[in-house]
Amino acid sequence: MADSPSAGGPGGGPGTLEPTPGGERDWLRFRDDSAPDEPAVSLDAFLDQSNAGSVRIEAGDDVRHLAPHLERLRLVEIDFPKFRDGRGFSSARVLREMGYDGEIKATGEVLVDLIYFMRRCGFDSFAPDVPLDRADVESVLNRYPHVYQHAADGAVPIWQLRHG
Amino acid sequence: MYKYDQYDQAMVSARVADFRDQTRRRLEGKMTDDQFKPLRLKNGLYLQLHAYMLRVAIPYGTLNSRQMRKLAHIARTYDRGYGHFTTRQNIQYNWIKLEDAPDILAELATVEMHAIQTSGESIRNISADQYAGAAADEIIDPRPWAEMIRQMTTFMPEFSYLPRKFKIAVIAAETDRAALRWHDCALRIVRNEAGKIGFEVFAGGGMGRTPFIAYKIRDFLPTGQILSYLQAILRVWNRNARRDNIHKQRMKILVHELGEDEFRRQVEEEFQHFLALGEDFPQAEYDRIAAYFAPPPFETGLSEEIDRSDPDFALWVDQQVAAHKAPGYAIVNISLKPIGQIPGDISAEQMELVADLAERYSFDELRATHAQNLVLPHVRKEDLHAVWTALHEAGLGEANLDLVTDIIACPGLDYCSLANARSIPVAQKIAERFADAERQKDLGELKIKISGCINACGHHHAGHIGILGVDRKGTENYQLLLGGSGDEETSQAKITGPGFDEAGIVDAVERAVERYREIREPGERFLDTYRRVGMDGFKEAIYG
C-alpha cells in the first residue's frame, strides 16, 4: 500500500498516524492526494458503467467483483449500516490484498473505537453519520504501541520485531 | 509456562488504558449504552441480573500461584470474597461495579492477565486440555500453539466485529478432555505417517439453541500454516454469515447451510490466498514460545508407591488422581463441587491455599478445567497425602471427579438475565440426593450438565444426563436429556419427553440412574448403557 501515511517503519506500529493537514474538513482523511469528487455508484451500476471511478459497497456486496476494474477505480466507499456489522472490515482488506491503492472510505455508523481497526484494514478516510470528537479519535489511533499480526497498514507485527 | 515480554506487557497495559478511556467516555455520555456494550463485552464485562460480571481470561487454563493470589485479592477487594470458574477455563466475578473495572484490569495486568475478548462477538480465550504438558497420553504439549493462537487472535483488525462469538480449543491426545467438537473451531495435534506434527481441524461446532457437533474439515494441516488457515475460516464466516438474526449468526449455522463440503472448499480457496501472503508465524517464534513450556525439572528415582492405609485418602486418590508422563509424579484434580455448594465457586481463602499448594508441590502451576474444577498438574506421588490433607482441611477434598455429583451448571436465574430457570439449586439438590460416596462410586462415570436456558452455557447438550431449564407459563420447568457427550465420541443428548418441576427433575434423574443400575452390563458406564438400549430403555422408568 504505497500511499498510506500510517505505514510505520521498522518497529513502528500504527501509533504514528497523523491526520492529513488541511483544515477541519480533512482531518478524517489520511491521504495526500485530492479527494475524488464524482459521486459513488452502486456496485451493479459500477460494473455496468465503463467510465465510473467511484463505487459504493453495501455490507453484503462482494468486492472481489471489482478485481478486473482496479485501474479505473479511485474511491471505494464501504458502508457500515450498523457498527456491529463487521463485513466491511473484510471488504477493505480484500481490496488492499488485490493491490488496490486508491481511497477506501468508511461511511455509516462509524464510531471512534472502530477507526483504529479500520485503519489497520486499509481504510484511509472516514465519513461518519454522527460527527466524532477529534481528540478521542487521535487518542484511540495512538493507543496501541504494537500489533500482533499483519494487516493492510504495513505495521510490523510483534513476532517480527522479536526476530529482527 | 509462558512469560510476557515487553511487547505482550505493553499490549495488555494499553488495553487497560483503552478501556479506562472507553469507560470515561461512556460515563461522560459521549456514547450510548448500545455503543458501549460491545466494547465492555470485549473486556469481559457482562451485565447480569443484579450487577456486572467480569470474566477474566485464563489462557488455555494455565495459571501460576502469583496469578491465583491476585485472583483471590480481586475477589476480596472488588467482589464478595469468591470467584466462579467457568466452562471455558476462565474465572468470573459476579458482583463488579463498572467504575472499578478499569482498576481490576490494571491489577490483572501486573500479573500478566487480562479480560480481553472473554465475551461479546469476538475470538474468545483459547481453551486446551487441562492435562497439557503432564498427560501420559499426549503426543506433545499443545500449549505453545494455543499461546501462538492467543497472540495472533488478539485485536485481529479484520475480525473486530464478527457475526458472533468464536471459540477455539486445542488438544494433543486421543482422549478428549476439552469438549473439542463442541467448539467453533477445534484443533487436535496428530502425527502423520511421515512422523510430522500437524493439526486435525474441526469446524462448525457449538451448543446454544441450535447445537451442532463440529465437522472434521481437514485431516492434516502443517502447524506452521495455522494462522493462514484460521484466517481463512474466519474470513469465509465473516463475509458470508447472516447479519439479520443474532440467533443464526454463529459459524455452525453457516457451515450447516453451506454444507460441510462447500464450506471446506471455500476455506481451502481462501487458505491458498492467505498462504501466498506469507503472514504465518515463523519457526523461530514457535521455538521462542515453546521454550517457555519446556517440562519442569522433574526429579528422577522417585518412588511410585502410594501409602493407601488411610481409606479416605485412598478413595480420593482413586477418584482425583490421573496418570502423569513422568515417573513418580501424578496429576491431582481438585474438586470445586463439594456436595451442596455452587459448582465452580471458590473462596478467596481457598484460592490462596490452592496457590500455596501449587507453589510448594506442583512447580508453581495450576490448571482450570472446562468441567469447573482445578488441577495441580505435577505432584510427586510421595506428596499426595500432604496435598490431600491440606485440601481436605480447606473443604476441597471431595472425591467426585466425573461422578454423578461432579455437575456442570451455568449461573442460571440466580445471576443471569437470559435465564429462564435456576440451575444452581437443581445442581445442589441432585448432589445432595446422590451424596453417599459408595453410591457414587458404584454408579461410576456419570456427567450431569445443567443449563438455565436454551443458550446452553451449562452444556446440557453434552451431558450423559442433561437438564434444561425453561419457562413454562411463568414457572420454572426442567427438561431431561440423555446421551450427550463431550469426549472423543461426541454425541448430542436427546430430550426424554415432558418436563418436570424442580422437585420432579431430581426424582426423574434418580429414576433414570436407577434404571441404568438395573440394566447395565458389567463394565458399562451410564452412557454405554444408554447407547446400547436407547431412549426406549429408559423412558418407561422415567415416566412410568
Automatic annotation (TrEMBL), chain A:
Comp. bias (Basic and acidic residues): 23-34
Region described as Disordered: spans on this chain: 1-36
Cited Pfam families: DUF934 (PF06073)
UniProt-listed InterPro entries: UCP030820 (IPR008318)
Domain of life where this protein originates: Bacteria
Protein name: DUF934 domain-containing protein
Species the sequence originates in: Pelagerythrobacter rhizovicinus
Native organism taxonomy: Bacteria, Pseudomonadati, Pseudomonadota, Alphaproteobacteria, Sphingomonadales
UniProtKB/TrEMBL annotation, chain B:
InterPro entries: NIR_SIR_4Fe-4S (IPR051329), NiRdtase/SiRdtase_haem-b_fer (IPR005117), Nit/Sulf_reduc_fer-like_dom_sf (IPR036136), NO2/SO3_Rdtase_4Fe4S_dom (IPR006067), NO2/SO3_Rdtase_4Fe4S_sf (IPR045854)
Keyword terms of this UniProt record: 4Fe-4S, Heme, Iron, Iron-sulfur, Metal-binding, Oxidoreductase
Keyword Cytoplasm found: no
Residue ranges of domain Nitrite/sulphite reductase 4Fe-4S in the record: 119-273, 404-542
Protein name as annotated: Nitrite/sulfite reductase
GO terms of molecular function: 4 iron, 4 sulfur cluster binding; heme binding; metal ion binding; oxidoreductase activity
Ranges of residues in domain Nitrite/Sulfite reductase ferredoxin-like: 52-109, 342-394
Originating species: Pelagerythrobacter rhizovicinus
Classification lineage: Bacteria, Pseudomonadati, Pseudomonadota, Alphaproteobacteria, Sphingomonadales
